[in-house]
Amino acid sequence: MARSERPGGVVSLIGLLLAIGGGVLLVAGVATYVVVSTTLSDQHITVSEDADNFAGEHVDQPWEAYAEADVIAEHASEMADGKTYAELPRDDPRRESVMTASFLQASLFTSVVAFGVAALAAGIGILFTLTGISLRRVARAPAP
Question: What sections of the protein cross the membrane (predicted)?
Answer without folding.
Answer: 12-36, 108-130
